[in-house]
Amino acid sequence: MQVLRAAADRGQVTTGWLDSRHTFSFGHFHDPSWMGWGPLRVINEDRVAPGAGFPQHGHANMEILSYVLDGALAHRDDNGGEGVLQPGELQWMGAGHGIEHSEFNASKDAPVHFLQIWIQPDRVNAPPAHAQKGFDPQARRGRWATLASPDGADGSLTIRQQAWLQGVRLGEGETAAFALRPDRRYWLHLAQGAAEVDGHALVAGDAIGYVDESGELHLEGAAGDVADVLLFDLPA
Q1: What are the DSSP calls for 67-89, one per residue?
Q2: Would the pLDDT of 113 be above 90?
């Protein structure tokens, strides 16, 4: 089974400083048909105004990934984790038994555009933790890179779930493939640019979910900005 989630159909929350698009139910946006995809619970595409952001607040028992598309995002938590996230970098915060953190636009002049991703962990009440890592965009041109995994494979960030996050960047005419397994489920999210995936023309924010599927996915970059494709490989 394949399920298309068009960017235009996502939930939207707009305030004076935040423009957020929700792939799945989150906050004031609730749709019983879109509560998540297996343990993948949240993909929010956020644009935050200069100098603004999310003041300190708490989380527990959630794996939270932040992926900056443009601008810079400043993180600080009460477990000693802090840093400024730039494009091409991925941040992991394992909320564990409880953590308080804030996320702010690190610039006073330019907006920050990023994805906030939540994955339910495979264990509860672990110690909270934080890490971030940069991934060379050129090293991902036409080649999948492992960005997050249960075991830190290939220099990826380690998360507490039997899930893998893969990323590839495709210019016009560049191609990539990925072998699907029927005992896993997958969520493909186009973060930027445009691409064709097995005949589906996708633009930024579009996504396709896969359940009980096998065979190869075939991806090809389209005209315009380089496509930044994220693929979540999840427990069935």
Answers
A1: EEEES-EEEEETTS-EEEE-TTE
A2: yes
